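Entry:
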Amino acid sequence: MMQNVHPAPENNEDDLYSGYNDYNPMFDTEDLENDVAFQQAARTSHGRRPPSKATLTSSMGRPMTGTIQDGLSRPMTAVQAAGYTKAAVRGSSFDPLGQAKGPASPLEKKTSDSLEEKMRQLEKKVNDLVEESCVANSCGDLKLALDKAKEAGRQERELLRQREQITPPESINLDLTYTVLLNLASQYVANEMYAEALTTYQVIVKNKMFSNGGILKVNMGNIYLKQRNYSKAIKFYRMALDQITSSHKQMRIKIMENIGVAFIKTGQYVDAISSFEEIMSISPNLKAGFNLILCYFAIGNGEQMKKAFKNLIEVPLEVDYEEKYISLSEDLHTNLLIEAIKNDSLSQIERERCVDAVKASHYVELANDLEINKATTYLRQQNFNQALETLKMFEKKDSRVKSAAATNLSFLYYLGNELEQATNYADLAVNSDRYNPAALTNKGNTVFANGDCEKAAEFYKEALRNDSLCTEALYNLGLAYKKLNRIDEALDCFLKLHAILPNSAQVLYQLASIYQIMEDPNQAIEWLLQLISVVPTDPHVLSKLGNLYDTEGDKSQAFHYYCESYRYFPSNIEVIEWLGAYYIDTQFCEKAIEYFERAALILPTQVKWQLMVASCYRRSGNYQKALEKYKVIHRKFPENVECLRFLVRLCTDMGLKEVQEYITKLKKAEKLKEIREQRIKSGRDGSARSRKEGSGDTGGTKGERLSAKLKALPGTNASYVDPLGPQPERPKTAARKRTEEDDFADEELGEDLLPE
């Protein structure tokens, strides 16, 4: 022990840290890597055994930490001071974490050759195959789904064989086996391989290790039901029912429904009644109740049918009223059935009871609104009689409801052109609620229709004072100002309305019309161009644009819009006439024939268009065609003088023998025409003379004489002078100027005057 004792130095008394660098040689760790005994002890448990005999002591004579003293062991603690070792004395750098030794050796890689790892990989593969089979089934590829299910079965059997070799049977993954077999059976059923499916289900059901396998007897019963083996289906359903506890209430109900259906298929209605009655006593539903009624009908028990029907109608639907008539199926039969029962007598009774229940409650105001909405629905369906009957019930109600009903009644009678009734109900609506803008608008409409535009404008302005956003009143006010020739005020109304309804076709049309009245064609064209961006296929708007461009002298743009109008509505005579005249002006008479022939089809009793066709043939040099056409016209209109004149002229030029025949017919037709005109003239002179004697006014006679002279001029009576003769005059292409009455009729004042 004395060799470990170090007396204090005598020479250097001030060295307080002397002796701190002295250490026991047994703690020298530099050569431990080459120490064979130490390495062996580190690899085995030999080095972990506590020393049993020797006791290490420190240089100060006390036991070392981690050693046994008096039979008691003490936990190991650090044996080195942090950062202070003998290596520092020998000139090495300060390295308390031992980083100078370099990185640690890499961990030993785990080999994948072990049987356990192979089995895990195989198990994963089986799960993947089952998943792929299910995905293929959902995508409709039933054959691929079955192939994947079979492959999963083969791989699962290989997994079982390998696992049995190295592990006891208790460690087998039964859930995986159950999943593989159930998926295989399901894929057999999907592919209608019922025998194979039943065999697979039997494997699951007979295996006692599958605790819930008995439930699958329901699937086996379904297969037998599809095979029409109803007795076996009932047997398996009952076995499944015995194995399902009462906690699975819905599943038991569905199985009992299947049992009842199977009994119906076999004609055992009494047994089916037992199943359905049990269902209706536990959890009533529509299917069971309906089938129960059928069973009672089959056995002829009328009293029980009534009772079952009463129970059926008490079953709650648990759906909204509208949703129950919305079909989510693509089955045509189901859709037709839903459409048939949507408005049958039972549905009508249901609605009436619903309204009566609301009326009897404290929500009576809601009942009135329901009736108003009912009438509005009839209006949208164009069922005006039903709407009238519904609205007339409110004539004795309170003022607010009465005003709303009377407003709609006035609107209906106004649409039916029954102005007297419309005026009466409009007065009733206004008197019931003077602040109802719709009622005031309808009153203004009835006054407007009777010709009092000033008074109508006052009603419209009062409606706007009550509701500044009443667009119907503002629109009708603009029409009233337009009728009164107060163009600036009308323009102001429609510009305000355009700010509220920027895409309203009617407003844009009225703005264009007003600018046309103000003789500002450029502005009119601008508004019409905006209008065709909203209604690009309106033929009237397109023809109006063509007319404006024609007035401005832009023939190419006029031709474009007239062609577009003709494309969408090829029966407008004005458009057809303009296009035909355009092709004649441009020396394309052959193309003009197409348009005049269409006009002749539209107006077959007017000889004018057929004569235009014949003239086009003559102008284009096709005299033979022209002659044939004139002959056809002569057969239809034998007394037409112009047709006979051209027949005489063509036959003379072509040297035909029938010329004399046509000359004779022409003289006879001219004589008949002269006699007819004289009779008309004498009748007019007589009527003018009688008016002169009665009134003493000579202006009428002068007017009648002037009219007679105009009628005597060529082309001014019912006969026709060819406009394509030596000095052809192009037909007038400007559309008839629309009057204010036309605008009023076209725009349908207040077309949406329903209560807000």
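The chain is about 65% helix and 0% strand.
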